[in-house]
Design a protein that fits this description.
Chain lengths: ~400, ~350
């Protein structure tokens, strides 16, 4: 065993995290680390397949990878130990990967004590190996046949060139074989259908709308962006996130979740952004602690979120723990959106397009750029009057961009 | 019963198709064309009393006279241009270019004129020109007489490019090419002239835009043309002895490429090896590989493999020439690499 006696307290297991409110199982698609690697807080450990998408998971401790505890491709429950680590600085008694079955068969009680993690001297650490995608080599035909038959390629032995799995390897598997049956592919559509049905079934929504003059915001953004390179320019979406975050930090009843018949306010303000995918469907990664971060920081994070969403490489930390959601349909031309809350959250703020409209200022009709901001809120948690004040705060922030 | 009658009867009984060489088949096609259509004439370097560098036109000068079988100066650009003019004027010229290497001197006439006039004249001027030329290595003729440049011509819209690989196609592709209202280039592989094979004397004109499955198989498809077809078939025999069943496709037409036939074959075999005597980079094998991948990706059990000539000018030395172009054992090895250990 890699865990030598006496070191059990020091070694610790990394558990399969829940990457969404409704994730209860997943499977490791590939490891991003090797046995013997020194990992640091924030490093990517593995790619996990969930019903929703493939997600990179991070580690929150420093340590050295001792062993992988589950085989690639096996369906495992959330909370299952998947990697054993030891504190950095200890010697490895066996650098190779341990037999998985032997370790997995042991009841691996999760150590409550956090490992002592001595400071890591980065310069002394070996350079982290570039992660290499180690997909199972299989021909397109073999993949198609396996999918049709519900077979998992991971469980098959390849006889093609370089050990690749070819059609004959799939066709040769008897129907009653012991390979595990892959779940029918659950599309993102199905998941959205489930979540939104649950929302409309269980959440008594109320909807409010407020027109906001974004003229000053536009001018302010134009001036601010004029002297910046394109990559550092601010978009209105970043301002929306910031405005909602500031409002949510003040109106805490809209920031949290409805669980077990009561509202649980969240400690932080993690503003999720609905990002539609070109392939259809949407994902809602969040900007963590958006009330604590500057507009520039939010913009930078937003760029990462969009890139991650579009390339299917969202980090787990972006996907879990959202406390409120924004949907911004302005780009696609809708004037206003009557949103559906993403459970267990209790509020969703919608932004329509900016349109030049007649607007009254000091009893004079003028033309201003107007955005209709909407609130879909959970009537179990809040009432319309509170919602109206929440909207007013958002409007105030958008009307005073210099304070954002 | 006379012996002649006995032979004839036996032949009919056994449905034996007469055998002739590729050279004889091509000559027979030319003779037939000259005899049946007085618009047809042949011109080229040494095609008349000398009988052609590869002796394809031997005897035709004596039979049809100097108006129908004409020698030209050593000026490919000039006599191909003359052929285009004759075609525009209503004749059906068959222009022989000694080897494809020399066709480069006529490239301007072929690409800028023959292939484009129909389009540039808004459909008013078609060019019913047939060009015959030899291609390929294997006869120790060195780098200026041994290249396989048919892929270059297959690149050009406005041309049809065919490569008969059997005596029967040599015999019966020509009338179809002559009947075509637009330019057709026939590539004759130099090593095929002495090869014999059955030629149906009454088959009649055959299509010049479809590939042919020359051998049926189930494990992989070998796509070949011209001189590579017989090598592919020989390789398939060896593979069969090793337990591998190879289907062999003779492209016949290099432009257009018959992807329907190739894709149908790939649907059965899931693997393809493209054997091309041309160079690999930017070559016909690349086009075939890409086209098959686009059409058949989800049916592929292995990447489309290519076997092409070494990226060198074809050497003179026998052993180097042999090493430079795909050989039977190379095809066998590539097939094993493609299919894997079995």
């Amino acid at each position: 065993m890699s865990v030598t006696s006496g070191d059990v307290d020091a070694a610790f297991d990394y558990l399969l995290p829940s990457l969404g409110a409704d994730m209860d199982e997943g499977r490791v698609l590939e490891w991003r680390v090797d046995v013997g690697d020194t990992v640091h807080r924030g490093d990517l450990m593995a790619v996990i397949e969930t019903e929703k998408s493939d997600i990179d998971i991070e580690i929150w401790h420093d340590g050295v990878v001792e062993a992988f505890l589950v085989p690639i491709g096996e369906l495992i429950a959330v909370g299952t130990p998947i990697v054993r680590l030891r504190p950095t600085g200890e010697s490895v008694d066996r650098p190779t990967s341990e037999p998985v079955d032997e370790l997995a068969a042991q009841p691996t009680a999760r150590s409550a004590t956090h490992p002592a993690t001595p400071p890591v001297t980065h310069s002394a650490a070996p350079p982290a190996a570039t992660p290499v995608r180690s997909r199972v080599p299989a021909s397109p035909l073999a993949r198609r046949l396996a999918a049709e038959r519900g077979l998992d390629l991971v469980a098959l032995a390849g006889t093609g060139p370089g050990g690749a799995i070819v059609a004959a390897d799939v066709r040769g598997v008897p129907a009653a074989a012991t390979v595990e049956r892959r779940r029918p592919p659950t599309s993102m559509r199905t998941l959205i259908a489930e979540r939104m049905s649950k929302a409309n079934r269980e959440i008594p929504h109320y909807h409010l709308a407020r027109d906001v003059d974004v003229g000053r915001l536009d001018t302010w953004l134009t001036e601010r962006n004029a002297s910046r390179p394109i990559t550092e320019r601010l978009l209105p979406a970043a301002c929306y996130i910031r405005a909602v975050a500031l409002a949510a930090s003040r109106h805490r009843d809209f920031n949290g979740s409805w669980v077990d018949d009561e509202f649980a306010p969240a400690d932080s303000v993690n503003v999720a952004m609905a990002i539609s995918l070109r392939t259809g469907g949407l994902v809602t990664p969040h900007v963590a602690d958006a009330d604590q971060h500057s507009l520039d920081q939010i913009m930078s994070t937003l760029n990462e979120l969009v890139a991650g969403a579009r390339s299917g490489t969202l980090r787990a930390s972006w996907m879990t723990g959202s406390t409120i959601t924004i949907t911004n349909l302005g780009d696609s031309g809708a004037d206003l959106v009557h949103g559906v809350i993403s459970p267990p959250q209790v509020a969703l703020v919608g932004f329509g397009r900016s349109r030049r409209s007649p607007w009254v200022i000091d009893d004079l009709v003028t033309i201003r750029p107007i955005v209709t901001v909407t609130l879909a809120a959970d009537h179990r948690a809040t009432d319309g009057a509170a919602g109206s004040r929440f909207l007013a705060t958002i409007a105030h922030h958008l009307e005073h961009p210099e304070d954002l | 019963m006379s012996s002649l009658d006995a032979d004839t009867d036996e032949r009919i009984d056994a449905e034996v198709v007469p055998s002739m060489t590729y050279r004889e088949a091509m000559r027979e096609a030319l003779r037939d064309a000259l005899a049946t259509d007085d618009r047809v004439f042949i011109m080229g370097e040494d095609v008349a009393d000398y009988g052609g560098t590869y002796a394809v036109t031997k005897g035709l000068y004596e039979e049809f006279g100097r108006d129908r079988v004409r020698n030209t100066p050593l000026s490919e650009s000039g006599f191909v241009g003359a052929g285009i003019g004759a075609a525009l004027g209503g004749l059906r010229p068959i222009v022989e270019i000694m080897t494809v290497n020399f066709s480069l001197l006529a490239l301007d006439q072929v690409v800028n004129t023959a292939a484009t006039l129909l389009h540039m004249s808004g459909g008013q001027l078609n060019v019913p020109l047939v060009i015959r030329t030899t291609t390929g290595a294997g006869r120790q003729l060195a780098a200026q007489h041994s290249h396989s440049l048919e892929g270059w011509f297959a690149h050009v819209p406005g041309l049809k490019v065919v490569a008969p690989a059997t005596p029967e196609d040599a015999r019966w592709m020509l009338p179809t090419a002559l009947a075509d209202p637009n330019p057709v280039i026939i590539f004759e592989h130099a090593t095929l002239y002495n090869e014999s094979g059955p030629v149906d004397p009454v088959l009649g004109p055959v299509d010049i835009d479809r590939a042919a499955v020359r051998r049926h198989g189930s494990d992989l498809t070998i796509v070949a043309s011209a001189g590579m077809v017989s090598k592919a078939l020989a390789a398939a025999d060896l593979l069969s002895a090793a337990g591998m069943s190879a289907e062999v496709i003779d492209l016949r037409s290099l432009r257009p490429l018959d992807f329907d036939t190739m894709a149908a074959s790939l649907a059965r075999t899931s693997r393809a090896l493209v054997v091309d005597e041309g160079w690999r980079t930017g070559g016909l094998s690349a086009e075939i590989s890409a086209g098959l991948t686009e059409r058949c990706f989800w049916s592929l059990d292995a990447p489309i493999a290519r076997l092409a000539s070494a990226e060198v000018p074809i050497p003179y030395a026998k052993h180097l020439e042999t090493a430079a172009i795909p050989q039977i054992e190379d095809i066998v090895a590539a097939a094993h690499d493609l299919v894997g250990d079995r």
